[in-house]
Specification:
The protein has one domain: Double Stranded RNA Binding Domain (2-Layer Sandwich), CATH 3.30.160. The protein has three helices and six strands. α2 packs parallel to α3. It is elongated, with a radius of gyration of 32 Å.
């Protein structure tokens, strides 16, 4: 059996300690650097423990589910947990949000509204109900007319939202920011065989879901901006 000499053991131990020292130094440097670049903490403004969200002030001319913004702001503060939601009469701070402008515009490429895509026949755009040279058909024999020669299957919601947070005890402005936002959603489905009423419902549901994404994004940023020190 070959035994290692004491000198060999000492050298190995010294190398191990040296390696640990290097690793520890690297870890300390990394931690120090990370601390230096993230030297921020999350806490509510001094003297503010409760908060209320005022009803949304909508001055846009677009019909939007603005109550979703009110709900998103409340949910964001409730999820954060640093402030307790309450009524305006008992709140230390008040959130005010205004939808200054909004629009819903078609987007995407033009798609032909061809009723005969399946059998590759020639499309007749908005055909005449009947010919003047023949007797008119019965009402149930009228052909369904196209709504447009072309349409765009997507739409974009664009909004400009102002948000302010006021300290109700000191009357100081704690936070103010303007959010120009937009989101695109699938407005129509080209291959769907459905009625006009169902298409309207699909458009409305998709538009509400898109505005909900906008509202959630704004609400989360408001909470972050108010709490981050």
């Amino acid at each position: 059996m070959i035994l290692a000499s004491p000198t060999t053991k000492t050298t190995a131990t010294q190398r191990a300690y040296a390696l640990l020292s290097v690793v520890a130094s690297v870890c300390l440097c990394t931690t120090a650097c990370a601390y230096r670049f993230t030297n921020q903490h999350v806490s509510p403004p001094p003297g503010v423990r409760t908060i209320a969200v005022e009803a949304i002030y909508d001055t846009s001319r677009e019909v939007l589910p603005h109550e979703m913004l009110w709900e998103s702001l409340q949910s964001a503060f409730a999820s954060d947990g640093h402030l307790r939601l309450t009524s305006q009469s008992g709140a230390d701070a008040l959130v005010r949000a205004q939808i200054k402008s909004a629009s819903v515009m078609p987007a995407g490429g033009n798609i032909a509204n061809d009723l005969n895509v399946s059998d590759q026949t020639t499309k007749i755009k908005d055909p005449k109900a009947f010919s003047l040279t023949s007797p008119p058909p019965l009402p149930n024999q009228f052909r369904r007319l196209t709504q447009a020669g072309e349409y765009q299957d997507k739409a974009t919601i664009s909004t400009v939202i102002d948000v302010e947070v006021w300290n109700l005890n000191t009357r100081a402005l704690l936070f103010k920011k303007t959010y120009p936002t937009s989101a695109t959603f699938q407005a129509l489905h080209a291959n769907a065989s459905t009625t006009a009423n169902n298409n309207h419902l699909r458009f409305d549901e998709a538009g509400r879901a898109s505005f909900k994404l906008i509202a959630d994004g704004v609400a989360n940023d408001v909470v972050k901006g108010l709490m981050l020190r």
